[in-house]
Structure formats: structure tokens, C-alpha cells
Design brief:
Number of strands: 2
Mean pLDDT: 92
Strand content: 25-35%
Largest sheet: 2 strands, antiparallel
Number of domains: 1
Structural class: alpha+beta
Distance between the termini: 25 Å
Low-confidence stretches: none
Length: 77
């Protein structure tokens, strides 16, 4: 949550580049409208996944241990 009480999500991609180097790239920094719950988090994630056409390239999701992140994962899978 930002100082202005906006709910914000940042989505990164961590991967091994074809040159063998580890890379990390910011894919999105988005405001979550409504409650910061699992359903809204999963909607934001799905939007980014579709924008980058990476649904078949995701191996893992990493987040903090908040319950809403666990709920978001169940919406995705």
C-alpha cells in the first residue's frame, strides 16, 4: 500500500537469459482497485501474464506469506 492508501502490486520476471546470465525485469507496477484480496491480485497477475504472453513460461510464483497471495494463486491454478 502506498502512502496515499493505494494498493500497488509490482510484478517481476526472473529468468536465465540465452547468454546464461540471470536476469530480473520489472513487468508491471500496477494499482489494484478495490480490496487488496486474492481475486483482485489474480486479476492483475492474469492481465500481465496475457500482455506478455508468458502463461506457458511460468515455472514458479514467489510472494510474501500473506493469505491473499495464497488465495490469488488458487485463482490462477
Amino acid at each position: 500500500t502506498s502512502l496515499s492508501n493505494y494498493s500497488i502490486i509490482s510484478i517481476f520476471s526472473n529468468y536465465i537469459h540465452e547468454d546464461g546470465q540471470r536476469r530480473r525485469q520489472l513487468l508491471a507496477f500496477r494499482r489494484i482497485y478495490g480490496c487488496y484480496n486474492g481475486e483482485n491480485i489474480s486479476k492483475a497477475l492474469l492481465t500481465v501474464i496475457h500482455e506478455y504472453s508468458i502463461s506457458k513460461k511460468i515455472g514458479y510464483l514467489v510472494s510474501d506469506n500473506a493469505q491473499n497471495n495464497d488465495t490469488a494463486t488458487t485463482y490462477l491454478f
